[in-house]
Structures are given as structure tokens and as C-alpha cells.
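Hello again,

I reread your note about wanting to compare the complex against the isolated chains. To keep things tidy I'm splitting this into two emails, and this first one only covers the full assembly. Below are the input lines as submitted, including protein chains and any nucleic acid or small-molecule components. They are followed by the predicted structure of everything together. The single-chain runs will come separately.
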Amino acid sequence: MAPLPSSHGSSSASHPKTTPPSVLLVIIDIHPLSWSLLASPPPLAPYPEHLGIDKAQASPMTLPDFVTILMGFLNAHLASRWGNEVVVYGASAGRAKLLYPPPSNAVAGPSKPRSNTYLPFQLLDSRIEEGLKEMALEERERLERGDVKSINHPPAMVSALTKALCFINRIIPNNANSAALMDPTATQDPNAPSTNGPDKPETRIMVINATPGENVSTAQSDSNENSTANGNTQNNGEASQSGKGGQMRGGYVGLMNCVFAAQKAKVPIDVLSLPPPSIDASPPIFLQQAAHLTEGIYWQWNGRGGLLQYLHALYLPPPSLRHHPFVVPPQDAVGFRAVCFCHHKTLDVGFVCSVCLSIFCEPRPVCLMCKTRFPIKSIPTLKSLATYIEPIPIPDTVPPPPVQKGAWSNQPAEHNKKERRKSAHNGDKAEPIEID
Amino acid sequence: MSSAYGDAYAVKMTSGVLVTCDSAAKQILLHLDSSREGLYKFMIRDVDETHLIIKREYVDEIKELLQDELEKNTYIQDPNL
Amino acid sequence: MVQPSFSHPRNDSSSSSTSPSPTAALDTFLDNQHQSYFEELYKSEAVCLCILRSLPPVCRHIILHHLWSHQPLRTTEVKSFVQMDVKASLEEVDEVMKPALKRKILHPMILKKGKNIWSSNDAFKRGLRNALTGLGTSNSFGVPYDRDDDAEIPSQEELVAYGEEAFEGILKYMVSSGLGIGFSVARPQPEVLELLHISGLMTDPTDETGQRPNINRMTITSKGFQFLLEDRQTQLWEILMYYLNAKEANSERSAEVLSMFFSLGCMQLGQDYSASKSFPHALSALNDLAQYGFIYRPSPDADQFFPTHLATALCSGDAATTKGQDVDEKRFLILETNYKIYAYTSNELEIAILNLFVDIRIRYPNLVVGKLDRKNVKSAMEKGISANQIISYLSSHAHPQMYNSPPPLLHPTIVDQLHLWDRERNRLKTEDTVMLEFFSKELFEDTVNEATTNAALQLSIPTQKFMFIEPQTKAAITDFVKERQNQLRSGF
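Full-complex prediction:
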């Protein structure tokens, strides 16, 4: 209602008048070890370039605090349009679970509506709270049973993503798939009948990552959870060579398959990475790749508070409004490195089977995946050639934003100054790219 | 209004009702008018292809006459076919 | 499929004008309210939520984006957010936020410390924040009724059926008064009839003055016919706004009543609420709404009430009022290119409405077959129904099967024909005029310019030096002509 007056030929006339209902699937990483890190962050490095940002102190983030913020955000998503829906998955060590909506066979939600809360908000909030408590309880039971090792599994992102994609596939009927999965131009189709037709929802996935890459991978190697809490400062140095994005260890193929499925279905995967730079010097590159490939938004929290405002500003607009008319925040350069199938190492340079495209860190006479035999004679040649390959500096995948669009750094609240940390950093770091 | 009628700056004023219509409808109106005599003529001025000036008191009458005329020229399918 | 239709450009423009939002009546009402009225409204969190949702998406997201900030909204911020050129004029950015300005969510733009800003309305901001966090205190989402656990409550289906029966009863009464079809319809309550009369949907033809109508002898007006063709939500809001305007005309305060409408719109179907605790200041209005089927009360003087789907769907912003119920039942029409209509319905009301412009040939228990023909369509147009209204009725009730063929939904042949029939009625455009004939080109052009600037010009034909002006401006133009004549003559 109240459509924009179309009398003027200004740019506002081209703004869409309606958007389809939007389904937001949130995956929260609730790995206990990661959250213990976030709750006691190390002091932030000074940020002399911008005094306003530097003044904001590092703010610890506990899971209950964050869930409160997240609920505010999810309520705002529900509030922004009738027919908007929310689905929440929790991903803990090695397992993922649907938190909201409750399964249909579950007993009906809370007893009584509150007179000052919109009922859908109340149902969502109380159910998420219950669900998180249930998961925490299960986690504790697992520990009490003596299953200490399981806590060192990385959060089950792949499992959660798969569930989310299945959910999307279920709510959007298969035959309508290509048309239903949002094409932003379709909604602005001037032909009247299409707007009168049944509204097809648009979907997006939002991954909230709390796990810093290198810490989990080290935790896995020495299987001692204490080392994660205090070991992060030493790890930062070596992280750049060894274990970037190590939380995806073993799940790499699964994750990438999910990403490609989402890409095909035109479902953007937004990624919010919570560990601030003081905990996690390198971004979780595979999640970053996921956001990049599906045209989602990737952003890393700077550890200085203001999260609720960031969530509203960056992640609230539905896909049909992103790019046009709204601007998308500048994305950092993405490292397109891959993980080898043989040792699960992150590679700059790898060897790819010409038959099944599996990636290996060293030349092999027989492909481990498809068992293709390669001429044994070629191996020494390959090895010698490989030593000559010099890593190529990658260009920024996204050009730095033009100056006048830099209002992302003009956020009003004091600590809401968006920090463009990475684009400054990565530009001179010259990350190598994978070639083969 | 002006003293000398042959004056280059003379202006002639006429009051009436301006009718705007398509040219087909205008032809029907002209036809209607030509079949009338003396006082019953309603046209004051034939302006151009799509405009006419007519007398105010005949407006409703000729609207009806035009509808009747158009009705005669409309093919209506026999409902029993 | 390429449609070689000459009407396409016109369709586009007409579709935007014929499918106004269902809340058009509400928008018009709100557009005419003052700041203080909104301050009063925004005390309720439910209102804030509903008003937010009623904004166009771009404006809505900017408001949400800005919700938790402590600073006023800056124009530079909005410009960069919607990718507008930094040098874009202030009017242009103001245009983007105009819907919010009209609802007094933002105060008009001011220049402060060298920056152009809109400061936000604190009442709205607080209300919306409280709506999202549940920290409000105004009970605007309804206080649940304290009932015994084993008390019997009506199911959702029963509530829907109740609301539907009550509202359709009123519509049926309206149709039957106009067509003389023998519905056995109960006459609505006197208060309802009164409102139908005040709103101009029905009138007493025997009442010459329009002052003392006999409300039991009323027939439907052309406005009433148009009302029947609207979709359900539009009808509901129109009725509510007539009700509100009637209240205002009695110089009663309407803000609380309007805020109650929004609260009802945020309530849950199947839940019961306490009337005295939820709406202590609008109890009588709540009673009135019961007559239209918005709420159901187990007994007439009970404090307990159940909102029906009519109420809970008020703010849902979609044409389809409720899940399941309406979406399927309202899509029953198949229209073929040979003007035949197949309506899969047994709803008396829908058949009566179709009967307004369709020649109904065959009736089966669940199917009506008819034909759109010139005679019936034209008689509908005599009643004041326009082609655009018929078209929007046909497309909003189109059977899902119709969506399977390539767009447009309604075949252009039929749409064009309806427009042509509509135009046939108005082949003549008549307006009072004074014609001026000139001999001098110079004088002619001067006079045309003068008339144009004073909005007095109806038409000018430069080749013949004719011009036509509004009769009431004759004196002024005559004076001007005389003056110019003198100037020109003395110039030689």
C-alpha cells in the first residue's frame, strides 16, 4: 500500500513496489568451544586509522547475548513483510538440528499469548530458546557419558546446510523450481497477471559462524580442549601456512557440493563470521567462497559491538532488493584455494585428476577417487614442473568501492563504523591462487 | 467588441458546448444535423475533424440519438445460435 | 508468446490504476491526518508494526536499517544506500522517504550542522522497537481472556464460517436489493444499514431529499455495485473507513478505534481475548464490529471475544485473506477467448455478482457457464461498473489453471473488447466553452499564452486561429484581448 507516487521521473519511480515473501534459513554455530573463545576475547589491536573505531572497546559476546540480538533481527525479518518466514538450525560439534519451526508432531507451543508481544515473535523466540537449551543439554549428556572426543569435532555446518537446502526444496515445489527460485526481474514484470498470481517465496540461507578456522584444527590434532582457550595467540602466526579454514576439514567436498547446489537453485548464502580478527586472523575461506559463489554477503565482525545494527543493515534486505536498489556492502577479496582429497590440506597449488577432477597435493600414479591410472613416467616431470610454479597474486575479486558509496563507513552510532579491515590487508598480502 | 469589423485585430466570440469525438461519430452528428430544419438544428460551428460546437440545450438529446444510431450499426449475435 | 495487441501499453497503465492496494481507503484516510493524530496512534505497538509493513519495501528497509541508531537519518546515508548519485537533488532523496514522511515516521528534512537530516518520530521509533522486543506496555496485541481450561471454544473453521456468513449476508442483501433475485436474506442490523446509507453504497430511491431515508427500503447504488466487485480485503477496509468517518462526523475521537483495527489485525485466529482489558476505550466500537462478523462473542454481553478471519487478516497485505479458505475458493473462473466463462462455484453471492455482467446460460450444482456479451456488459456499465473493474474482478478470480497458459492472464482480445465497450458509452466529450476566432496571428498567440498561464485554455487550433476557453474566464480574457488590441493598433 501507499505506492510511491509515480509522478516524477526520479529514480525512486523504478524502485520495486512489492517484494515476494521471503524465507530466511539461519544456521547458528553453537559449538561450545568457539563460544567460550568469543566470551573472553583478547584485546583488540589498535586501529589508529580511525579514532572513532579505535575508541570502541572489544566486547565479549556470550551465546545468550547473541541469541537475544539474533531474535531481535529475526523479529525484524518477520516484521518487514507479511508471509515472511524464519527457519533456524543449530550446528554444534558434529551434529545439526532443526530448532524452529518445531516439528509438526510436537506439542503446541507456549501456553498463553502475551499482551505486548506479537504472537509470531513470541512463538519464534520461545521455541529457539527451548531448542538451544535442549541442544546444550544433549551436549552435556554426551560429555557426562565420557564422550569427550566428540566435542572436538567441528560444527556440523555441512549437515545443517544440507538440511536447509532440503527444506527449501520441500517448500518450493519441484516443477516450479526454476521460476520460483527468485529471479529479481520476475517480480518487476509489468504484466499485471503475474503479480496477481500466487506469490512465490524467495529463500536465502544465513550462516552464523563462531568457529575460528585454525583453532579448531589444532584442537583436533592434539585433542585437548584447553589448548584452544589460550593457544590462539601462538597459533595466529602459523595459521597462514597451515590450517586456514581448517574447520571444514573432511567436510570440504560436502560443503562445496552444498554451495554448488545452492548456486544452482539461486539461493544466496549469507555468512556472518563472529570471531573478530583478534581471535581469527584469517577468514573462514570456504564459507567466504560459499558467500561469493552464491552471491551472498560475507562479513566478519570486528569485535567491537554494534552487532544488532550490523545485522539490520547488512543482512535484512531480501535478495530481491539487493544490488537494486540497495547497495551491497563491499566484499573482501576471496581466496579460492581448495583442500586436497588425500591429506585434507589447504592448497595453493594442486594436482587435478583429469578424469574426475579430484584435487591432490602431490602427483599420483593412480587417482584415489576414480582409480584412473596415469603414466608413471609423467610423475617426475610433473614434480619438477611443480617446483617452478610461482604463486600468482590474486587480484581483489571485488574492486574497492568508489568513494561516494563509502557511506558504509558512515554508520551513525559511534561503534558502528564499518571497518574495511580486510580490503586494506589483503591488497598487499597478495594471496596465491590455485592453478593446475 | 471592436468597432471596425474588417479590422485585422478583430475577434469573434461564440458561446456553446464544445464536443470532442472521433471523426466517425462526428460524421453521424453532421448527418443528424443535416436532417433537421431551422430552429431544430443544433450545430453552431463545425470546427475541425474531431471538434464541433453545438447548442447547449441539445446536448443530452443528441447523446441519446448518437447511441441509438450506433446501436443500429452494431452486430448482435442471435443468442439462439 | 508475442501478443500483437494494440492495447498493451494501455493495459500497463490501467493495471497500475485498477489494482490499487487493498488498503487504499485507509491510505487516503491517513494521508489527511495531522501529526497529533499519528502521535496518538503510535502509542500502540501493533499500529507501528502495521504501518511499517504498509510502507513500500525500499522505504521500509531504510527505516528498519535505521531503527537502532541514535542519530537522525542523513540524506547522504540514504543516497548511498539506494545507490543514488551523491549530487542527486534533495527532492529526489526526499521522494524515496516520502511514504515515511507522510506517515509522520520521519519529521520533514532540516539542515543541521551543515547536514541534511530527517529526525525520526520518537513515538514511532519507541513503538516499533517495543514491538520487536516485546517490551511495550500498551497491551496492543490483545489481552488473552482468562477462561477455564475445559471451556469449549470454537474451532478456527467455525470462526471462519461465522465471519464469512455475517459479512456475505450484508453483501447478499446489497446484491438482492439491486437485482431483485430471490435470495432469502436476513436484513442486516439497523446500524449496518445506516452505515451503508451514509457511505452511499445504498440509497432509498423514494427519498427525494436524501435526508430521511427509510433504511428498510434501500436499493444499491452504482458505488455499491463497484464495491461488490472489489476483493474482500478492500471491502473490509472500505467499510471500516466508512465507519471511522461516520465516527469522525459525530466528532468522536477515532484514533483509538483505528488503533483497535490494527490490534485486531495482529491477533491470532482461534485465540480468545478479553474485550474490557484489550480495548478499554473502544468497547462500543468493538460491539459495532461484531455486526459485520469481525469478531465472535459466545454471548452478546460476554467480555470474551474471538476475532474471526476477517479481523486477523486485516493487515495481512495480501489479496488472499486467509490460508486455504479464500485462496482456493476465490479462484474459480475460467475465461475462454470466445468469451465463455466457466465458474466453478456454488456460492450464491459470487453467482449474483457474475450475473451483473455475464449472461448466465447453464447452472449446475458446482458450475456456472455463461458468456460475456455486449448486452450484459453494457447494462453493467450503465450501473456504473467500469471495464477496469470487470477486468480486475476476472483476473483476481482466475482459476489456477488459467496461470498455466502463457501470460497475459486474460486474453487481450477480451480485455480490449471490454475497453471498447466501455468507450462506446462515451464517444462524445462535451464541455461548455467560449470560442474565439482571430484574424491576427500575433494577437492569437498572445491570447493563447495568456490563457494557458491562467489555466483557462481548453483547446487551440493554430492553423485556423481558433481558441476555446473556459466560460467563467470569458470576462478576464476579453479584457486582456481588448488591451492587446489597443496596444497592437497603436503600434502601427
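For quick reference: The first strand of chain C starts at residue 73 and ends at 74.

B.
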